[in-house]
Every structure is written in C-alpha cells, then in structure tokens.
Amino acid sequence: MMTKIEMQTMDAVIGIHREIKKANETDWEKRRYEIAKELFLHGVKTSLNSVENDAENAVKWADLFISKLKKER
After folding, report:
1. Dist CA 21 CA 19 (whole Å)
2. Please, are residues 70 and 35 in contact by the beta-carbon 8 Å criterion?
3. How far apart are CA 42 and CA 46, in angstroms?
4. How far separated are the first and last CA of the chain, in Å rounded?
5. Is 48 helix (H, G, I), strand (E, B) or coil?
6. CA-to-CA distance for 43 and 54, rounded, in angstroms?
7. Own/partner pairs for 47-52, CB < 8 Å, 24+ apart?
8. pLDDT 10s digit of each residue in the chain, 73 long?
C-alpha cells in the first residue's frame, strides 16, 4: 500500500507528464492562422482578385497544406 505522500508524488509526476506531452503537441489552429496569413500577405501583393477572394484562397491553401502535413505524421 502506498503512503499519502507517495500517492501525491505519483499524481504530480503524472500531471507533469501530461503537461509535457501537451506542450509538445502541434497547435494546428495556430499553425493554420500563421500559414494563411503568410499566404494572404504574399498573394495580395500580386493578386488582381478582391481581398475577400484572396483571404478565402489563403485559408483554403492553408487547410490543404495542414492536411498534407498531418498525413505525413
């Protein structure tokens, strides 16, 4: 049987492990925003489309790019 302090220590270790695992996971929503922003800023310089169209295209390209990245993992 474990003592109370051993149980608390075990809970703390498990919690630390969860936090480390969570910190190492990719934040796909953040990455989506960053990729779409870069695509939009790059594309708007040379585009003859409307800003709304450029924004929609940037998000579509970002989604496609992320789906390919996820498949490779």
Report:
1. 5
2. no
3. 8
4. 41
5. coil
6. 7
7. none
8. 889 999 999 999 999 999 998 888 889 999 999 999 999 998 878 888 888 999 999 999 999 999 999 997 6
**Burial zone of 62 (CB within 10 Å; 0-12 exposed, 13-18 middle, 19+ buried):** buried
How many angstroms from the chain centroid is the CA of residue 16?
21
Which of helix, strand or coil describes residue 12? Answer: helix
From residue 32, alpha-carbon distances to 21, 29, 40, 54 in Å are: 21, 5, 12, 15
Amino acid at 41: L
